[in-house]
Design a protein that fits this description.
single chain; 289 residues; alpha/beta; Rossmann fold; five-stranded parallel beta sheet; 5 strands; flat
Length: 289
């Protein structure tokens, strides 16, 4: 059962998220609730307006912490600065790009952090929507576009909406998990929204390998799609092994300094983490337990 305090946290997150949408109706649609329920929440009503399932769905959508875990603060690591700058440029100029880099450096956190404070920017975890239909429906729902009915209508409504709003940005994380059919649909969506919508694809080395392998095998659409996404793969981490170790250690230090309790031995946390940001989280969670 969702507690009153958690409902209040979710309601606060809804209010904070509102500024990213052009209207209450679009915001309500993106959350999967009716405008009447949305109005009630906006007026401070939290009891008997939503089912527990709806509260959980909205909490998941907005990344609300319901378990009492650490409320992680954004640290301006090299990864955070690099990706944020790329996303800002892409959104302002309706550009597209691909970032392929090692896991556990803060790519996902940075992307999620970005969409929380930028209107018309959405984040998609492609590992959860691997097929063409699920991907397009998910993008539509995040923008508050209707995602029920015939697929062709959902697609056309989404394209129309993306071409009608100011500087939309779609971040596709874990993009290497998408099916071949979904990749081809991305190319079609890019074509339909050229110079109107920014696209930013992210993944680990597997994404680069998948695209390159498909191009080598002359699979239809992959060479064209890479061209549309800038014809190159960007990355943050240094190629040199020793420089990469220093880079990861510095990132761990910056994150630990911002999030660890006062008096923490930051150097110890960095050594134990071996530069992995998920391990930094684990070490700090131990300290706060």
């Amino acid at each position: 059962m969702i507690t009153t305090s958690n409902k209040q946290k979710i309601a606060a997150a809804i209010a904070a998220n509102r500024e990213n949408y052009p209207s209450d109706a679009k915001h309500a649609a993106s959350l999967g609730i009716t405008t009447s329920v949305y109005s009630a929440l906006k007026n401070g009503q939290i009891e008997r307006v939503l089912s527990d399932a709806n509260w959980i769905s909205i909490a998941r959508r907005l990344g609300v912490n319901l378990k009492g875990e650490i409320d992680w603060k954004a640290a301006k690591t090299a990864t955070w600065q690099y990706i944020t700058a790329q996303l800002e440029l892409a959104q302002q100029s309706s550009l597209s790009g691909i970032l392929c880099d090692m896991p556990n450096i803060g790519k996902t956190f940075t992307a999620r952090n970005y969409v929380q404070s930028h209107a018309n920017a959405i984040y998609i975890d492609c590992s959860q929507v691997k097929t063409k239909t699920r991907l397009v429906k998910k993008i539509a729902s995040e923008f508050g576009v209707g995602c029920t009915g015939w697929y062709v209508d959902i697609y056309e409504d989404l394209v129309y909406y993306l071409r009608s709003i100011e500087n939309p940005l779609i971040i596709l994380d874990e993009a290497g998990d998408l099916s071949n059919e979904a990749f081809l649909e991305l190319k079609a969506l890019w074509n339909a929204t050229e110079r109107c919508c920014a696209w930013y694809m992210m993944g680990a080395d597997g994404l680069k390998a998948k695209i390159d392998r498909s191009i080598d095998r002359q699979k239809v659409g992959y060479a064209e799609m890479l061209s549309r996404f800038g014809s190159r793969y960007s990355k943050v981490t240094p190629d040199d092994g020793k420089e990469r170790e220093k880079f990861l250690a510095e990132q761990a230090r910056v994150v630990a300094k911002v999030n660890a309790p006062e008096g923490t031995d930051i150097a110890l946390v960095v050594r134990r983490s071996m530069g992995g940001l998920r391990r930094v989280y684990t070490e700090i969670e131990k300290l706060k337990a």
